[in-house]
Amino acid sequence: MGLPGLRAGVAASDPRRPADPRLVDRFGRVATDLRVSLTDKCNLRCGYCMPAEGLDWMPSERLLTDDEVLRLVRIGVEHLGITEVRYTGGEPLLRKGLESIVERTSTLRTVDGNAVETSLTTNGIGLSRRAQALVDAGLHRVNVSLDTLDPARFEQITRRARHTDVLAGLAAAAAAGMSPVKVNAVLLRGVNDDEAPTLLRWALVHGYALRIIEQMPLDAQGAWQRSTMVTAADVLAALSEHFTLIPEDAGRRGAAPAESFRVAPTSDTPAGTVGIIASVTRSFCGACDRTRLTADGQLRDCLFARSETDLRALMRAGTSDAGIADVWREAMWRKRAGHGIDDVGFVQPDRPMSAIGG
Ligand code: SAM
Fold it and tell me: Residues 162-208: pLDDT tens digits?
C-alpha cells in the first residue's frame, strides 16, 4: 500500500523491494520519523558520549548547509512519507540559524497535507533565551537531557558547571508553551543511580515528562560495560518503592521507544507519567520507525549501523530529488532486524553518539 500522492512505481535495485514510495524494510517496518543531527559539536562533555577533550569536529565544508538540510528533509517529507522531524546533535542549539531551519520545516506539508511534527533534543543550555523564538518558528516539542538534580553531580557527569542553565531552559520551554516538555535522564552506576525517585518527584511537581534511558554502547572511549549499566528493571524497582506505576496500554506504545507508566498522585506529587527506555535490555527494534541523517549528510538506518549512505555527495553531484529518494529507500530496505548489542560479534559503531545524533 502506498501513500496517496506519493510517487509509486519506484525502481527497485533489490528485486525483492516492493514498489512502495515509503521507507519500507525487509521486516515490514516503515520509517516515518526522521532524526537530523545539525552539528557534532557540544558544549557539554558527558562521559558516556564524548571524551573530556572533545572530538575532532567535522570540517565545515563537510557539514550540510541549511539549504542542504532542508532539501533532504523536504525529500523525506514529500517523497518518502516522513511525518516527524527531530533536530538533534551534538547540541542543536549551537547551530546558527536553528530557528530558521525550524521555520522552514514548519512550512512543509506531508502528502496528507499535514504539518510536520517538529521537535528538538537538547541539553537546554541557552534554551531560556530561545524557547519562545523556537515556538514562534513552529517547534512543537522539546526533550531536554538532564541526568541529575545535584549541581556537583551534573558537573561530574558533564564536566561543565551548567546545571542552572539547564533548569532555566526547561522552565522557559514550558513557559513558551512547548508540550509535553520531556526530560531525558541516563543513570550511571555509582554516580546518579540513586536518583530515579528524586528525578521523578521533581518532574511531576514541575509538569515535565521524565524518561529514563538505559546507557548504550555509544561512548567515544568504548568504555560501556553491560555488567555495570543501570537497567530498566533496576529503575522500575527503585521507582516502585515510592510510587504506584500503572503501565499504559501496551497497544498504545506503537513505535515509541519508552515503556510508559501512569504515576498515581501522592501526598506531595500530582499524577503524571514516566517513560523507561530499555534500549539495551528490552530493545524495541521490531517497532522502529526511524531514519537518521548525520550533520555531514550521511544516512544511517540505525544508531548502531555499521555503514552509511552519502547523501551529501549525491546532492553535491547534482542528483535529482527523485534519485536521492530512491537511494534513501534502497538503504532503508537493507536495515537490519535489530541493533545487535546482544550478538556475540557486536561491534560498536565507529562514530560516537554525539557524531551520529541522539
Ligand atoms: N545535546 C543534545 C542533548 O543533550 O540532548 C542532543 C544530543 S544527545 C547525544 C541526545 C541524547 O542522547 C541525550 O539525552 C543523551 O543523554 C543521550 N545519550 C548520549 N550518549 C548516550 C549513551 N551512550 N547511552 C544512552 N543515551 C545517550
Answer: 999 999 999 999 999 999 999 999 999 999 999 999 999 999 999 99
| CB-CB contact of 145 with 173 (8 Å) | no
* Residues forming beta bridges with residue 119, ordered by sequence position: 86, 141
314: CB partners within 8 A, 6+ apart:
323, 324, 327
Question: In the predicted model, what is the mean pLDDT of the chain?
Answer: 92
pLDDT in tens, 27-38: 999 999 999 999
Is residue 249 within 8 A of residue 208, CB to CB? The reply is no
Verdict on whether the full-model pTM lies above 0.70: yes
Based on its alpha-carbon atoms, the radius of gyration of the chain, rounded to whole angstroms, reads 20
The partner residues of 272 in beta bridges, in order of sequence, read 263
* Cβ atoms within 10 Å, residue 176: 20
Ligand 1 atom with the shortest distance to the CA of 89: 7
Distance 265 CA to ligand 1 centre (A): 29
Give the whole-angstrom CA distance, residue 23 versus residue 70. 18
CA 353–ligand 1 middle distance (angstroms) = 7
Residues with CB under 6 A from ligand 1: 42, 48-49, 88-89, 91, 121-123, 145, 184, 186, 213, 215-216, 218-219, 353-354, 358
Residues 6+ apart with CB under 8 A from 183: 143, 144, 145, 146, 170, 199, 203, 208, 209, 210, 211
- Whole-number Å distance, alpha carbon 192 to ligand 1 midpoint, is 16
Rounded Cα distance, 326 and 90, in Å: 28
